[in-house]
Specification:
Layout: E1 19-25, H1 32-39, E2 45-51, H2 57-63, E3 67-71, H3 77-91, E4 95-98, H4 110-118, E5 123-127, H5 137-154, E6 166-169, H6 173-176, H7 185-195, E7 200-204, H8 218-233
Parallel strand pairs: 1-2, 1-4, 2-3, 5-7
Antiparallel strand pairs: 4-6, 5-6
Length: about 240
C-alpha cells in the first residue's frame, strides 16, 4: 500500500483554541465588524452566532474574520449563546468569553476574565457598577435591584448580574446550560452555576454606552424574569 501524497492527504485538524470569544448577534451589521476586529487580538478565535438576522450581520462578521454559526430564524439571545457554548465546547476551547455584538464591551479587558478563571473561577462576570457614572440612572437602579435579588438566589454576591460580558470554562458549560432562550438565560446561567457549585467571580469592566438601541422589551422580558425567578426560587421577587 502506498502512502497518500502530501497533496492528497487531509490537513490536520486545527488546534483547539485556549481562549475563544463568543458573540451572539441579531441585527448588528452596523457594529459587528468593529467588535470582531477589536476582539481578535485578544483571543485565539472569534465566533459569531448570527441569530437569524434579516440584515447583513452574518456576512459582515465573517468578512471581519469571525467564524460563523447561523440560526435560520431568530431564536433569542439565550438560544444563540447556548448554540455557541455547545459548539465551542465540542471544539475544545478552554475559556469561552461572551461579548455583546453592539460594542458595549471593551475586548482589551478580556485578560481580566482569563486571569480570574486561571485562579479557579468557572464563571466570571463583568462588573460595571464600580464606576457607573455613565450608566443611565434608571438602568443603574434596576441593575442594582436585580443583582441583589439574583445574588440571593445564587447564595453568593454578584455585583452586576445584568452584565453580558462573561467567561465560562469548558468544564462548566453543562452546568450553565438551561431552558431559557431569551435574555432571561443570562440570569438562569448564574443560578444554575451557583447551584452546581461552580465558583463565580466578578471583575471590573468599563461602562460603555453609545448609539446602540437595547433589544430588551421592558414588559415582555420583565415578565420572563419574574417567571424564571418563580420557577427557580418559588418566589416572584
Amino acid at each position: 500500500m502506498t502512502n497518500p501524497s502530501p497533496a492528497s492527504a487531509s490537513p490536520p485538524p486545527a488546534a483547539a483554541p485556549r481562549v475563544a470569544a463568543l458573540i451572539p448577534a441579531y441585527r448588528e451589521a452596523r457594529h459587528i465588524a468593529d467588535v470582531v476586529r477589536a476582539t481578535l487580538p485578544h483571543v485565539d478565535e472569534v465566533w459569531v452566532v448570527d441569530d437569524g438576522s434579516p440584515d447583513d450581520t452574518a456576512a459582515v462578521a465573517e468578512a471581519a474574520g469571525a467564524k460563523l454559526i447561523r440560526h435560520e430564524v431568530n431564536k433569542g439571545k439565550g438560544a444563540a449563546i447556548k448554540t455557541g457554548l455547545r459548539a465551542l465546547g465540542a471544539r475544545g476551547a478552554r475559556f469561552i468569553v461572551l461579548l455583546d455584538g453592539d460594542g458595549q464591551h471593551a475586548a482589551a479587558e478580556i485578560s481580566r476574565f482569563v486571569a480570574a478563571a486561571e485562579g479557579g473561577a468557572g464563571l466570571v462576570v463583568g462588573n460595571r457598577l464600580g464606576d457607573a457614572r455613565s450608566m443611565p440612572f434608571v438602568r443603574k437602579c434596576v441593575n442594582r435591584f436585580m443583582s441583589w435579588r439574583i445574588s440571593r438566589a445564587c447564595g453568593t454576591p454578584i455585583p452586576d448580574t445584568q452584565c453580558g460580558f462573561r467567561l465560562v470554562t469548558r468544564e462548566r458549560i453543562e452546568a450553565v446550560l438551561g431552558e431559557s432562550d431569551h435574555f432571561d438565560f443570562e440570569t438562569e446561567m448564574l443560578v444554575r452555576a451557583a447551584r452546581a457549585g461552580c465558583p463565580i467571580a466578578s471583575v471590573p469592566v468599563s461602562t460603555i454606552y453609545g448609539e446602540e438601541q437595547s433589544k430588551i422589551s421592558p414588559v415582555r422580558d420583565a415578565l420572563r424574569f419574574f417567571r424564571l425567578m418563580k420557577k427557580l426560587t418559588g418566589s416572584w421577587l
